[in-house]
Design brief:
This is Dihydrolipoamide dehydrogenase. One of its GO terms (molecular function) is flavin adenine dinucleotide binding. InterPro entries: FAD/NAD-bd_sf, FAD/NAD-binding_dom, FAD/NAD-linked_Rdtase_dimer_sf, Pyr_nuc-diS_OxRdtase, Pyr_nucl-diS_OxRdtase_dimer, Pyr_OxRdtase_I_AS. The structure is a single chain. By secondary structure, the chain is an alpha/beta fold. The protein has three domains: 146 residues, 3-Layer(bba) Sandwich (FAD/NAD(P)-binding domain), CATH 3.50.50; 111 residues, 3-Layer(bba) Sandwich (FAD/NAD(P)-binding domain), CATH 3.50.50.60; 116 residues, FAD/NAD-linked reductase, C-terminal dimerisation domain (Enolase-like, domain 1, 2-Layer Sandwich). The chain is 33% helix and 24% strand. Helix 1 runs parallel beside helix 8, helix 3 packs across helix 4 and helix 3 runs parallel beside helix 6. The longest helix is centred in the N-terminal third of the chain and has 18 residues. The chain starts with a strand and ends with a helix.
């Protein structure tokens, strides 16, 4: 057994772990990084990257079939599912060197390709190594949650970890779960030629603004995605090519393939956390505002920390703890400015409070400003006029923004900046956007907030009349 001592041990080479390792090493720390599976973690290999690559293939197919409105004859797309998966793999392979072992060793990080488990509060065993570190960061992420549905273990099924290896297009894909992953893959597959049924035990996109979610769901249904809500799966039966999902209310859904997309579970089971004095909760590892665990020498970041499960949150967490781990300075993680997006078409994005949350928290102090994409000239030119943006504003400052429509995931970036810096709507209104751009909706919703204060306002009218009459 080889013993190693270092300043910082990072367990997990996903987005958060890689960011911590690279930053700490380049600033002079002695860093060891453990990864027992693939460098780049879930996001590169099974999540964000492959799913968006497949959506891009699906978008191309859909565009070919819906181009008549632009003066170009519609065509029946010849979607090659295997070739689309080649595109997915090519994108992964192109990005992979950025997350590679060789690159991080170039930063001075010692990379050990083995799973880690605590053997004491300060020691971790990985393969034939025992590492003692001054500080330890757990960044082991999460895995697909497979619910205990009777019969599921008797039929073949996919998760996001296996779906992108599938080379033959499903004739009829059943998807259990109506969240972002389920709906993104539903739209991708229906556009590539599959029949798709989404089976959701509650309400699809339940965590999002209901009005925005309805717009997305209506569009997916119009494209041919069957979305069955309040359909809690109670039994699964059949075999490859002939699978049945029975809901608690007796509805039966039949298909050729099954994708389980009901959520994520944090990867803690192999870590032997009890030995290290690290407590867990139902959602992950227990951390304080500084992302420190109940073992003060150990931090947890990203999905495993039990909060919002997004790649960009893991990257944000990495920046938070670098300040504390390397410089001994206080640093706390916040959530109010964390955005998220569902990359269906149309896209749905949120930062801060939804309208319902804002009304509950702020009551009569809340004002809602809204602007519809149908009044944006670029959206009209590109036939992308379905959607809206609404800002929840309290005393002149936005506390949340909901966007549904073309490029919503891009548009929400500005509002994350605004909320992160406690900016006012007047500062957004002062921005000048190039014309014509989709991005104008951000400025226009700020204008919508101020319009009632300026137009049809007796006080403003009196001031204007006075100036026009008496000021030379």
């Amino acid at each position: 057994m080889q013993r190693i001592k270092c300043d910082l041990l990072v367990i997990g080479a996903g987005s958060g772990g890689l960011s911590v390792a690279a930053g700490a090493s380049q600033m002079g720390a002695d860093v060891v990084l453990l990864e027992g599976h693939k460098m780049g973690g879930d996001c590169l290999n099974y999540g964000c990257v492959p799913s968006k690559a497949l959506l891009a293939s699906a978008k191309a197919a859909y565009g070919a079939a819906h181009s008549a409105a632009f003066g170009v004859a519609d065509q029946v797309p010849q979607a090659d599912y295997a070739a689309a998966k080649d595109h997915v793999q090519d994108v992964i392979d192109t990005i992979a060197p950025v997350d590679s072992q060789e690159r991080f060793e170039g930063f001075g990080v010692r990379v050990i390709r083995a799973l880690g488990r605590f053997i004491s509060p300060r020691e971790v065993e990985a393969g034939d190594h025992v590492i003692t570190a001054r500080r330890i960061v757990i960044a082991t992420g999460s895995s697909p949650l497979v619910p205990p549905i009777p019969g599921l273990d008797q039929v073949p099924y996919e998760t996001n970890e296996t779906l992108f290896d599938l080379r033959e297009r499903p004739d009829h894909l059943l998807i259990i779960g109506g969240g972002p992953i389920g709906l993104e893959m539903a739209q991708a597959h229906v556009r590539l030629g599959s029949k798709v049924t989404v089976i959701e035990g509650d309400t699809a996109l339940a965590k999002d603004d209901p009005e925005a979610a309805t717009l997305v769901l209506d569009h997916l249904r119009a494209e041919g995605v069957e979305i069955a809500e309040q359909a809690l799966a109670s039994e699964i039966r059949g075999a490859a090519g002939a699978i049945e999902v029975e809901a608690k209310d007796g509805r039966i859904f039949k298909g050729t393939h099954l994708l389980v997309a009901v959520g994520r579970k944090t990867n803690t089971e192999r870590l032997n956390l009890d030995v290290a004095g690290i407590e867990t909760t139902r959602s992950g590892i227990k951390v304080d505002d500084s992302l420190r665990t109940t073992n003060r020498r150990v931090y947890a970041i990203g999905d495993v920390a039990g909060g919002l499960q997004f790649t960009h949150v893991a990257g944000y967490h990495a920046g938070v703890i670098i300040r504390s781990v390397l410089f001994g300075l206080p640093s706390k993680a916040k959530t109010a400015h964390i955005p998220w997006a569902t990359y269906t078409d149309p896209e749905l994005a949120q930062v801060g409070l939804t309208e319902a949350e804002a009304r509950k928290k702020h009551g009569s102090q809340l004002e809602i400003a809204r602007f519809d994409f149908s009044h944006n000239d670029r959206a009209l030119a590109e036939r992308k006029a379905k959607g809206f943006i609404k800002a929840m504003v309290v005393k002149g400052r936005p506390v949340g923004v909901t966007i549904v429509g073309h490029q919503a995931g891009e548009l929400i970036n500005l509002w994350s900046l605004v909320l992160a810096n406690n900016m006012k709507m007047s500062q957004v209104a002062a921005m000048v956007s190039p014309y014509p751009t989709i991005g104008e909706v951000n400025k226009r919703v700020a204008g919508a907030y101020f319009s009632p204060r300026l137009f049809d306002n007796p006080k403003v009218e009196r001031v204007v009349r006075f100036v026009q009459r008496w000021i030379p």
